[in-house]
Amino acid sequence: MQKYFITKENLENRVITGDDAYQMSTVLRFKGDEIVMVSDSEKSYLAKILNVSKDEVSFEIVEEKTGNMELPVFVSIFQGYPKGDKMEEIIKHGTELGAKQIIPTFMKRSIVKLEEKKITSKLERFRKIAKEAAEQSFRNVIPEVPSIPYLKTIDFSSFDVKIVCYEESAKNGELKAFKSLISNLKENARVAVVVGPEGGIDDSELSYLKDKGFIPCALGPRILRTETAVFYILSAISYEMELKKWK
Amino acid sequence: MQKYFITKENLENRVITGDDAYQMSTVLRFKGDEIVMVSDSEKSYLAKILNVSKDEVSFEIVEEKTGNMELPVFVSIFQGYPKGDKMEEIIKHGTELGAKQIIPTFMKRSIVKLEEKKITSKLERFRKIAKEAAEQSFRNVIPEVPSIPYLKTIDFSSFDVKIVCYEESAKNGELKAFKSLISNLKENARVAVVVGPEGGIDDSELSYLKDKGFIPCALGPRILRTETAVFYILSAISYEMELKKWK
After folding, report:
1. Is 70 exceeded by the pLDDT of residue B173?
2. Which domain of life is it from (chains A, B) (predicted)?
3. Which residue of B has its CA nearest to A179?
4. pLDDT for the residue B172
């Protein structure tokens, strides 16, 4: 079954519009009677498709679906802006793995420079990827990609736990910080994670973040690429908090 | 610093050849005196570059480097052959995350069909990616990509723990199997992990694997893409076995 995030207004009017309607009518060739899930990011419903056109697909609600698919903590990933299409990969998999916010962040060693007008189209693209990944992984909400800030303009004061991935910590054998923090997370904690771009975190950025209360963490003995570090962190939080053992 | 895996013969002769020599001479523009790490997959050494040409770079050994970067268990990933370039992504990140073998496996719902001659070139490409990722992440060994078998031709009898990712288990709320198995892993255990292609595992494959001793495991409440499941599993094993807590 496919899930679709729609606006509150469309949910009230029982219609799906835009790209989703186009996909249902042309790619999936819906004829009516199909069952899908729709959500306004607050509640999710099983819906039966009624009429299908390229611009608009109407539906009726069959039943409300309850069930929480969200990580029990609020994780914001501040990702040093990487090269190529890595940012898209991070948003896609980071969404599946439960991040609540993914914030592409300009850091000293980010090579990519974006003009103002390019930023708007990049953000649109990133939000589309987050929406599609949230639909595919049956998230209750779409992660936010709010802006593309510079690291030192970010207000980190609302976060309870602050983690900065630091490769040198791995080289120095400091492997205790991450697990100590993650295994003590409380439900609904707000967790900020800063991951540097390919070139890593600059020394001045590291001391700036330490002053803001960030703890440098290594993620095992191997050197991980920037995108792999994000996958590791979110997987570990899920493993620690969402999975249980047999009695 | 860059790490290079070289043959035993090249290590004895203190030379680097092939693509690596080409890269050192043309892309990195080495002139001599640079320090790199070389390894024959058994031992690793700091090496000082002597003479550089496109075909051959000579070096002298400065010192042996000890230090284990390997996961304390032997994990073989049997990956249902996926579409597009996902297999390459899985080999790249799976290598960083510590897999010892990554075996692209034809399963019922694999869409890709490969002719015999295509298989040879695919394997060459996959092994190159594994080598490069092992170098970048400072692994002690290069993971094997031994062949591209059909699922039912594989002999799983040498494995101690057998995990099959099963999405339906997530839908049914069965979240205990994976953590129960992983948290009880013993050092040097041999772990087989089967992950289906995009369409998932076929019912007949699931019962075949269960007969072979595989335990169906869910990886949290969200539905993960096939490649994300691999990242989750390897990250969780590292988190469980390699990271410690503060006293």
Report:
1. no
2. Bacteria
3. B245
4. 60
